[in-house]
What we know:
0% of the residues lie in helices and 56% in strands.
Amino acid sequence: MRYYLINSDSEEVIFDISETKKIGFGHYQYVLQSENYQKTIQIKKLAGKFYLSEDKKSWRKINSLELDTDLAHKSQAYKVYRGFKPSGLFSGDAGTLVTQMPGKVVKILCKVGDKVAAGETLLILEAMKMENEIKSSIEGVIKSINVEEGQALDSGQLMIEIEA
């Protein structure tokens, strides 16, 4: 599953969790990978607090602001988006869905003229061997679909336009 972490300065961290394994009660191992690295981390919950280790020897407390939506790391606070990053989040038009990285269109789940709700999945895009749900960030009507199933896309390509 792809995760997007974005801070208030629009800086983002993008990674996939490629493997999750339960090690014991409240103790999990995750394999994180991006285009540039792969890292294995361990997270455990003790007395209602969460701790993280990269070497299984030293552990540091991690803070969570709101489960599944916010994350605090050192002095930075990040918004967490699981599986998709809303279009037009910090720049551009909220009614445009643009590829964030190269990929292949697996399935289109809408057609021109369809009414869509915010958060509704509009297409499935395969990138880095992971299927990602591309969702609408606004409520509106599909104005245009600029891709086809099976089409390979470059980063920054306009896929769908939504009229609010």
